[in-house]
C-alpha cells in the first residue's frame, strides 16, 4: 500500500518505435508522467477475444473462408454462368439456390461455434481480481479485461493468474510462490517461483526492461533497474504465467508484464487440431474423376449438338440458323455444364461434416468409454479423422502410465545387501489392484480407492480445493516387512547391546545403513507437506534452527540410535559427535525436548490426542523402554506389537499429505512414513523428520541438486542430525549410482543381484547412496554434479540400498492387447524403462507369450548393429520357413505373416540410434515387420517419434500412438492418429492428441467398434452420394439424345435443383450416423472383423467404379422403360419426365434400404418424409404454379399423371428392374462368399463354448485345490472356485 514512484529521474529519454520493437519497457501504471502513460497504452489490454468474427466482419470473412473450398467456387461460377443468356439452362434465380443453401448451412454452423467461443471469452473477461488503485491507495476489484500492463495485482491461494506477472512479493518467508500449471501445460506437480532479489517493494519505483512477447514457456529474459542505477537480472523463475493457479501460498503481488493476447498462454493457444483423413484424400481424387466424367458428357453433348445442327434440313420448328454449328456447340458445352452440375456432389461436403459431428456425439456419450472414478469421458479433439480409427495397422504405446497405472507402490527393498520382500504387501497389491485379475477387478479397485481416499478427498472438496494427482494416500498400501520392523525396534531401546550380527541381532553397521536408508527416502526429495484439515495454502514449514544437537529421550540415557552414530565402532563409518553436543545426556534431553516442543508450536502440528502427528513420541518411547527392561533377552516388545505400533503410527500420519513431483517420489516418502520415518515439515534451510525411537529431528539442508536427464539422479547436501557431519544423500537410476559407488562397500554384488531380480519382476528400481564430506571447501555445490568415488573431499561413497516400486498394470490391458492383435493391429511398446522391466510388463500384459522367441538387439557400434540385424533377419526367415507348414499356415489365430507369431524384437535406445540411420533403417524395418511385436527400451522422445515416422512413411501404414506424458507428445503428433491418456503425468499428451481417453482398455471399444463403424458409415455414404448423383445426372444426359443435344430438360427446374440437394440428402446422413453393420457386442467378441473390414477396403477405386457402373445401368433402366412405355403417345416433356423422376426417387431411396444393415424407426421415418416431401412438392407446384419454370408450364401435369394407373405401373416395374441385379448380387455374395474371418471367429466361439461346457462337467467330478496367488506364482488367477491345476 506504500507504493511510490518517480519517473523523471529514471526516464529522461523518449521511447521510439524502434526501441519498442527490440524490447519491452514496463513501469507502474500509477505513473503521473503523461509520456510514460501513453507508452503503457501502446500495449495490449488483458481482454481476450478468440472469436473469428464480429457483427460487421462475419459476412465478408466467412464468405472468404468458404471460397477456399474449390467446390464452392465451382458452384458460384456455375450460378454466375447461368446469368449469361446465351448459355442459360434455366432461371438464374433457381441456379443460385443450391450454393446459397450450402453456404448458409455452413455459415450457421460457423456462427454457432463462434458464439460458443464468445460466451467462453465473456466469462473469462468478467472474472475478478484485486488491482492496486493509486487514487484509492488500496487494492480494488477489477475485471480481468480491465487489467493493463504495469498494474499491481494481488492474488490469494487457489486463485488463477489473470496475466503474465513479475513476482514482487510472496507471503512465504523464503520469497517463494507455488503455482500449478495444469491449465497451461497439463503438469499437475507444483512449481516454485521466486520473488525478484533485492527488491524494495514498499517504495517501488524501478524500471523493467524485458524481451518482447513470445510463446516460449521456459524462457524469460530481462532486468530491473533501480533508481540508483543497479540492475537486477530477471529470469523465468520470476514470472507468473496467465492461467496458472496459486497454490500453497497465502498472498502474492506482481506487476503485469504481458496482458491479453500477448501472454505466453494465449500465444500458445493454437486451437483444435486439423488433420486430413485418408478417406478425405481419396474423396478428392474421386471428385476429380467426376469432373472428368462431366467434361466428357458435356463434350459429347457439344459435338452432338454441332453435328445435329449441321445435318438439320428444313426444320419444322424454330431454330437459330445464324449461329454456326461450332459456336452453337461451344454454347451448349457451357449449358450442359450448368444442367449436369449436380454430378459434382455439392451437398456431400456439408453432409460429411454433419455426419462426423453425429459420430463424435455418440462416441463422446458412450458409457463404455466413461471413467466413473475420475468422472472423465473421452475427448474428441480432432473432428475430422474419426474414420481413420477403423484403419489402424500399427499401434505404438508407451508403458508407464499407459499400460500401467503410474501409481507407484513400494513393493520391495534391499538394505546392506539384505532383501526385505514385503510379501504381505505384494499379495495385497496383486489382489486389490487387479495386476492379476480377480472376479470383478473394477469393483475391487473402486472399493479400495473409496476406502483409502473418500475421507481425505471429501474434506478437500468441501473446502473447494483441487486435489493434485500426486496427493497419494499410499501409506496404508505399504505393509511393513516383519524382519525390517524387528530390526527397527532396536532403535527404540537405549539399553540393547550392540552385536556383530552373528546371533541374529543386527550389527551397528547394518542399523546405520537402515537408518540412513529411510532418512534418505524421507529427505532426498522436493515433496511439499500439507494437511487435509488445513486450507491448501497452509504448508508445514519452519524457521531454521540456530543450534542442532542430538535429541534425547526424556528421563533416559542417550538412545541407542544416538550412540550408534557416535561410538566409532563401525570401521569406515566412524562418526564424530557434533562439536556442540554435550556429554550430559539428561541436560541434552531436556534441551531437545524443549526444542521439539517449541518446534511443534511453530509448526502448529496436530498432536496424537487430536488424531495425528507425533506429539507424544517421548511418552510412548518411555513405555517401550520399560517393556524392554522386563524382557531378559533385551528384545523388548514382540515384532507383532511393533507392527501394530507401526500401523497405528501410519494411521495417525495419514493426516499429512505429500505433494510430489512424481509418483515414484511420493511412493518413497510414504514408504518411509510407514516405517515411522516421517517427513513433517520443510523450510529453505531445514527439514523436520521423525525417526523411530528419537522423535522430531531438524535436519539442516545445505543444498539440493535436482534430478535431470543427464545426471539421472537427485542429491541433497545436509548436516547429519546425529553425527553433525556433512552428508550427501543421492537417489537415482541404478545404472548411474552403481557406477559411482565403491564395489567393496555395502555388499554391492548382492545389491546388484537384487536389482536384477526386481527388474525381472517388472519393478521400477532406484538406488540410494550416501557419501560423507570431510571438508567445508567442497561446499561449492557445482562440484558435486560429477562426483566420483575418488573425489578428494569424499571419505565414503556407498550404496545404502535399493528399492523396487510396483507400477500396477491397468485393468484389462492383457485382454485389450490380445483383442488388438487378433484385429490385425501390430502393437509396439516404446518405453524409457530398462529392458528387463519392459520385457516383464510385456509378459504381464500378454504381449509376449511363453512360446514366443525373444530377439534382443544390443550393440555398441554401427557395424555390429548392421551385422546383428542381418543375422536376425536370416534367423527369422528360417523360423518362418519352418512355420510355413500347412498345419501352421492354417492357424487361424495368427496374423497374415506366419513368422510374426514367434518372434519378438527387443532393442535398446543406444542400438536404436544406429538402426534408425539411413543405411540401416531398411534392415531394421524389414526385421520389425517380420516380428509379432517390437519393444524399444531406454528410448528417448525423439526416438519414439522417429520410429513412428519410419513406419508411417516407409510402409504407408496407418499408425496410432498412445501415451500419457510429455515425453510422448512428439510421437502422438507424428502418428496418423494420436491418443492421449489423462494419467499421473499431467495433460500434455492429452492437449497434443486427437482423442483423449482415461484408460488403455478403452482403445478396444474405440477402435474395434467405433472406428470400424465410422469408417464403414462414411465410406458407404460417400459411395452412395456419388452413385445417386451420377444416376440422376445420366437421366438428363440420355434425354439429350432425343432433343438434339440442346440442353433441354424433361423436368421442372426446381425439381432438378432440389432433387439431390434436399429430397435425397437426409437419408444418407442418417445412415452415416446410425448405421451398424455388425452389433457392438459381436465386434468386441470377434476382433477379426476389424481386420476383415481393412482387407475388404470398402472405399477403394474398384468399389467407386462399380457404383458408377451400377448408376449407369439404373439410369438406363429408369429412362428407357418409361420411354418405351410412353412411346407413340402425346405426352409432353414434363409428363414424360414425371414417372422418370418418381422412379428415380424410389430407386435411390430403396437402394439405400438394400445397403443398410440397420433399419430403425428413425430410418423409416426419414425415408417416408423424403418421399412425401418430393410428392408433396411436385403436387403443390402442379396445383398452384403457372410460371415457376418458364418456358415450361407445370400446371396440372403431376396431378394428371398421378391420377392414371399407368404412372404407378411404370414406377413399380422400373424400380424393380433397376434394383433387382444389386439385390441378387448382394444376396448371392452374402450366401456363397461370407467373410472368412467371421466364419472362423464364429467357429472359434462355438469351440470355446463347447470346451467350457466340457470343463464344467469335468470340474464337477474332479475337484482339486488351487494354488494361492502370490508373487511367486503371479500367473495364476485368484478365484474361490477350484479348477484344474
Explain this structure to me?
Mean pLDDT is 75; it is low at 1-14, 428-476, 535-559, 566-654, 785-795, 886-901 and 1264-1285. This protein has 42 helices and 33 strands. With 1285 residues, it is α+β, with helices and mostly antiparallel strands. α32 runs antiparallel to α38. β16 and β17 form a beta hairpin. Residues 601-611, 627-647 have a biased composition (Basic and acidic residues). It is a multi-pass membrane protein.
Summarize the structure.
The protein is of the alpha+beta class. The protein contains 42 helices and 33 strands. The chain starts with 16 loop residues before the first helix and ends in a 24-residue tail after the last helix.
- Gross morphology: globular
Give the distance, in angstroms, between the N- and C-terminal Cα atoms: 78 Å
**Approximately how much beta-strand content do the residues carry?**
5-15%
Helix/sheet category: alpha+beta
Number of strand segments? 33
> Helicity level, as a percent range?
40-55%
Strand order of the largest sheet: 14-33-32-31-15-27-30-29-28
Q: Quote the average pLDDT.
A: 75
Q: How many individual helices?
A: 42
Please give the radius of gyration in angstroms: 39 Å
Low-pLDDT sequence parts: 1-14, 428-476, 535-559, 566-654, 785-795, 886-901, 1264-1285
Characterize the main sheet.
9 strands, mixed
Active site: 398 (4-aspartylphosphate intermediate)
Binding site for Mg(2+): 398, 400, 964, 968
Transmembrane segments: 70-88, 94-112, 287-308, 328-350, 1022-1042, 1054-1074, 1104-1124, 1136-1154, 1161-1186, 1206-1225
Cofactor: Mg(2+)
Amino acid at each position: 500500500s506504500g507504493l511510490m514512484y518517480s519517473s523523471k529521474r529514471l526516464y529522461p529519454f523518449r521511447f521510439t518505435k524502434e526501441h519498442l520493437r527490440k524490447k519491452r519497457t514496463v513501469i507502474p501504471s500509477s505513473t503521473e508522467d503523461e509520456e510514460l502513460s501513453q507508452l503503457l497504452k501502446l500495449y495490449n489490454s488483458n481482454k481476450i477475444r478468440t472469436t473469428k468474427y464480429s457483427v460487421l466482419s462475419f459476412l465478408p470473412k466467412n464468405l472468404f473462408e468458404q471460397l477456399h473450398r474449390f467446390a464452392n467456387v465451382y458452384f458460384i461460377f456455375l450460378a454466375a454462368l447461368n446469368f449469361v443468356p446465351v448459355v442459360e439452362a434455366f432461371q438464374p434465380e433457381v441456379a443460385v439456390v443450391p450454393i446459397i443453401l450450402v453456404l448458409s448451412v455452413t455459415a450457421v454452423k460457423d456462427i454457432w461455434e463462434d458464439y460458443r467461443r464468445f460466451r467462453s471469452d465473456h466469462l473469462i473477461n468478467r472474472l475478478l481480481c484485486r488491482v492496486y488503485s493509486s487514487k484509492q491507495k488500496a487494492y480494488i476489484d477489477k475485471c480481468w479485461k480491465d487489467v493493463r500492463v504495469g498494474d499491481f495485482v494481488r492474488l490469494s491461494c487457489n486463485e488463477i493468474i489473470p496475466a503474465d506477472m513479475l513476482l514482487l512479493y510472496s507471503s512465504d518467508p523464503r520469497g517463494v510462490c507455488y503455482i500449478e500449471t495444469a491449465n497451461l501445460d497439463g503438469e499437475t506437480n507444483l512449481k516454485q517461483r521466486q520473488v525478484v532479489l533485492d527488491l524494495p517493494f514498499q517504495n517501488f519505483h524501478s524500471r523493467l526492461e524485458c524481451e518482447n512477447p513470445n510463446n516460449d514457456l521456459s524462457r524469460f529474459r530481462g532486468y530491473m533497474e533501480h533508481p540508483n542505477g543497479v540492475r537486477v537480472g530477471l529470469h523465468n523463475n520470476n514470472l507468473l504465467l496467465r492461467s496458472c493457479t496459486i497454490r500453497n501460498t497465502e498472498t502474492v503481488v506482481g506487476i503485469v508484464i504481458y496482458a491479453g493476447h500477448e501472454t505466453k498462454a494465449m500465444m500458445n493457444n493454437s486451437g483444435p487440431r486439423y488433420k486430413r483423413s485418408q478417406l478425405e484424400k481419396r474423396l478428392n481424387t474421386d471428385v476429380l474423376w467426376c469432373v472428368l466424367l462431366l467434361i466428357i458428357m458435356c463434350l459429347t453433348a457439344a459435338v452432338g449438338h454441332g453435328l445435329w445442327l449441321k445435318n438439320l434440313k428444313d426444320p419444322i420448328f424454330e431454330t437459330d440458323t445464324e449461329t454456326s454449328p461450332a459456336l452453337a456447340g461451344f454454347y451448349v458445352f457451357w449449358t450442359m455444364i450448368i444442367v449436369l452440375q449436380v454430378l459434382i456432389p455439392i451437398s456431400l461436403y456439408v453432409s460429411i461434416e454433419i455426419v462426423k459431428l453425429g459420430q463424435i456425439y455418440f462416441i463422446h456419450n458412450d458409457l463404455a468409454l466413461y471413467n466413473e472414478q475420475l468422472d472423465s469421458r473421452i475427448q474428441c479433439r480432432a473432428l475430422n479423422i474419426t474414420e481413420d480409427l477403423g484403419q489402424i495397422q500399427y499401434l505404438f504405446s508407451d508403458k508407464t502410465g499407459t499400460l500401467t497405472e503410474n501409481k507407484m507402490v513400494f513393493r520391495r527393498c534391499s538394505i546392506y545387501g539384505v532383501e526385505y520382500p514385503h510379501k504381505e504387501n505384494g499379495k495385497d497389491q496383486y489382489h486389490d489392484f487387479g495386476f492379476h485379475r480377480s472376479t470383478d477387478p473394477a469393483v475391487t479397485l473402486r472399493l479400495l480407492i473409496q476406502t483409502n481416499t473418500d475421507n481425505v478427498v471429501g474434506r478437500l472438496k468441501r473446502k473447494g480445493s483441487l486435489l493434485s494427482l500426486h496427493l497419494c494416500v499410499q501409506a496404508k498400501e505399504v505393509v511393513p516387512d516383519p524382519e525390517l520392523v524387528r530390526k527397527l525396534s532396536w532403535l527404540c531401546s537405549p539399553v540393547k547391546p550392540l552385536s556383530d550380527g552373528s546371533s541374529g541381532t543386527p550389527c551397528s553397521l547394518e542399523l546405520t545403513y537402515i537408518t540412513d536408508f529411510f532418512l534418505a527416502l524421507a529427505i532426498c526429495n522436493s515433496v511439499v507437506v500439507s494437511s487435509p484439515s488445513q486450507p491448501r495454502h497452509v504448508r508445514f514449514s519452519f524457521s531454521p534452527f540456530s543450534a542442532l544437537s542430538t535429541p534425547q529421550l526424556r528421563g533416559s540415557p542417550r538412545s541407542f540410535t544416538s550412540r550408534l552414530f557416535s561410538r566409532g565402532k563401525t570401521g569406515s563409518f566412524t562418526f564424530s559427535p557434533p562439536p556442540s553436543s554435550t556429554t550430559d545426556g539428561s541436560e541434552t534431553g531436556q534441551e531437545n525436548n524443549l526444542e521439539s516442543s517449541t518446534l511443534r508450536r511453530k509448526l502448529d502440528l496436530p498432536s496424537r490426542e487430536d488424531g495425528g502427528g507425533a506429539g507424544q513420541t517421548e511418552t510412548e518411547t518411555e513405555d517401550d523402554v520399560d517393556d524392554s527392561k522386563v524382557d531378559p533377552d533385551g528384545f523388548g516388545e514382540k515384532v507383532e506389537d511393533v507392527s501394530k505400533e507401526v500401523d497405528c503410527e501410519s494411521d495417525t500420519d495419514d493426516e499429512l499429505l505429500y505433494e510430489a513431483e512424481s509418483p515414484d517420489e511420493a511412493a518413497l516418502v510414504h514408504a518411509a512414513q510407514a516405517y515411522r520415518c516421517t517427513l513433517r515439515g520443510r523450510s529453505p534451510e531445514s527439514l523436520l523428520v521423525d525417526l523411530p525411537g528419537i522423535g522430531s529431528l531438524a535436519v539442516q539442508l545445505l543444498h539440493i541438486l535436482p534430478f535431470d536427464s543427464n545426471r539421472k539422479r537427485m542429491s541433497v547436501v545436509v548436516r547429519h542430525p546425529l553425527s553433525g557431519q556433512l552428508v550427501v544423500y543421492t537417489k537415482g537410476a541404478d545404472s548411474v549410482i552403481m557406477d559411482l559407488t565403491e564395489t567393496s562397500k555395502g555388499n554391492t554384488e548382492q545389491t546388484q543381484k537384487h536389482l536384477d531380480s526386481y527388474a525381472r519382476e517388472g519393478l521400477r528400481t532406484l538406488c540410494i547412496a550416501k557419501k560423507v564430506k570431510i571438508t567445508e571447501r567442497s561446499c561449492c555445490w557445482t562440484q558435486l554434479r560429477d562426483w566420483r568415488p575418488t573425489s578428494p573431499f569424499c571419505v565414503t561413497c556407498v550404496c545404502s540400498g535399493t528399492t523396487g516400486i510396483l507400477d500396477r498394470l491397468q485393468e484389462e490391458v492383457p485382454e485389450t492387447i490380445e483383442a488388438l492383435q487378433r484385429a490385425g493391429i501390430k502393437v509396439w511398446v516404446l518405453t524409457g524403462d530398462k529392458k528387463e522391466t519392459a520385457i516383464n510388463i510385456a509378459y504381464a500384459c500378454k504381449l509376449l507369450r511363453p512360446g514366443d522367441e525373444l530377439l534382443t538387439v544390443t550393440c555398441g557400434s554401427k557395424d555390429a548393429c548392421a551385422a546383428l540385424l542381418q543375422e536376425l533377419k536370416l534367423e527369422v526367415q528360417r523360423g518362418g520357413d519352418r512355420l510355413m507348414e500347412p498345419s501352421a499356415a492354417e492357424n487361424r489365430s495368427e496374423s497374415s505373416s506366419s513368422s510374426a507369431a514367434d518372434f519378438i524384437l527387443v532393442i535398446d535406445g543406444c542400438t536404436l540410434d544406429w538402426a534408425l540411420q539411413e543405411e540401416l533403417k531398411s534392415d531394421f524395418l524389414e526385421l520389425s515387420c517380420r516380428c509379432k511385436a517390437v519393444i524399444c527400451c531406454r528410448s528417448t522422445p525423439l526416438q519414439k517419434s522417429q520410429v513412428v515416422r519410419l513406419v508411417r512413411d516407409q510402409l504407408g501404414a496407418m499408425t496410432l500412438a498412445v501415451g500419457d506424458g510429455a515425453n510422448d507428445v512428439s510421437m502422438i503428433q507424428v502418428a496418423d492418429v494420436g491418443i492421449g491418456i489423462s494419467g499421473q503425468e499431467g495433460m500434455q499428451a492429452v492437449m497434443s492428441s486427437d482423442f483423449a481417453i482415461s484408460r488403455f482398455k478403452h482403445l478396444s471399444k474405440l477402435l474395434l467398434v467405433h472406428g470400424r463403424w465410422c469408417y464403414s458409415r462414411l465410406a458407404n455414404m460417400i459411395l452412395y452420394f456419388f452413385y445417386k448423383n451420377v444416376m440422376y445426372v445420366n437421366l438428363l444426359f440420355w434425354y439429350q439424345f432425343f432433343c438434339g443435344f440442346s440442353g433441354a430438360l424433361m423436368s421442372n427446374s426446381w425439381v432438378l435443383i432440389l432433387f439431390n440437394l434436399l429430397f435425397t440428402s437426409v437419408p444418407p446422413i442418417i445412415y452415416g450416423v446410425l448405421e451398424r453393420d455388425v452389433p457392438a457386442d459381436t465386434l468386441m467378441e470377434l476382433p477379426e472383423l476389424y481386420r476383415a473390414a481393412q482387407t475388404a477396403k470398402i472405399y477403394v477405386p474398384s468399389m467407386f467404379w462399380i457404383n458408377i457402373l451400377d448408376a449407369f445401368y439404373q439410369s438406363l433402366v429408369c429412362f428407357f422403360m418409361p420411354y418405351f412405355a410412353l412411346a407413340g403417345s402425346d405426352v409432353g416433356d414434363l409428363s414424360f419426365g414425371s414417372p422418370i423422376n418418381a422412379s428415380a426417387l424410389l430407386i435411390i431411396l430403396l437402394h439405400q434400404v438394400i445397403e443398410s444393415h440397420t433399419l430403425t424407426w428413425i430410418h423409416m421415418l426419414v425415408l417416408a418424409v423424403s418421399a412425401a416431401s418430393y410428392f408433396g412438392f411436385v403436387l403443390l407446384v402442379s396445383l398452384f404454379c403457372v410460371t415457376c419454370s418458364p418456358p415450361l408450364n407445370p400446371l396440372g401435369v403431376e396431378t394428371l399423371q398421378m391420377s392414371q394407373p399407368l404412372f404407378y405401373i411404370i414406377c413399380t416395374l422400373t424400380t424393380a428392374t433397376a434394383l433387382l441385379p444389386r439385390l441378387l448380387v448382394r444376396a448371392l455374395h452374402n450366401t456363397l462368399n461370407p467373410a472368412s474371418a467371421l466364419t472362423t471367429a464364429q467357429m472359434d466361439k462355438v469351440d470355446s463354448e463347447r470346451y467350457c461346457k466340457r470343463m464344467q462337467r469335468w470340474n464337477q467330478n474332479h475337484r482339486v485345490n488351487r494354488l494361492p496367488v502370490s508373487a511367486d506364482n503371479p500367473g495364476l488367477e485368484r478365484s474361490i472356485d477350484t479348477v484344474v491345476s
